[in-house]
Amino acid sequence: MAAKPIPPTATDNPLSRCHPRRDNVIVRRAENAKQTSGGILLPDNAFQKQQVGNVIAFGPEVEGLKQGDQVVFSAYAGAEVQQARNAAEFVILRDEDILAVIPEQQ
Known about the structure:
By secondary structure, the chain is mostly beta strands.
C-alpha cells in the first residue's frame, strides 16, 4: 500500500519547535491507508510501519535536507516518539539512517 504524504505544518506538531542536536533529524512517519480502494477498512495490525516520512526539523550538522522533504529511512533506526494529541508518530534519527530523499512531484 502506498504511503500518504503528510503536509508539514508548524501548528499541528510541537516537535517542529524542537531543535535536534548535531546530526539528528526529526521525521513524521507517513500514515498507512486506513481503507482499500474497494472500501474495506483495515485494522492497524494489518500492515507494517512505514519507512517513509516528512522532515520536521534537523540539527546544524545535517546537510542536503530541508523541512518538508520526504525521506526513506532504515526500518530499525532511531527513537520513536508518539504524540498523544493527534496520534502522530515521529522518529528521531541520525542523518546516516536516512537512505534516500524522495523528489517532489511537480
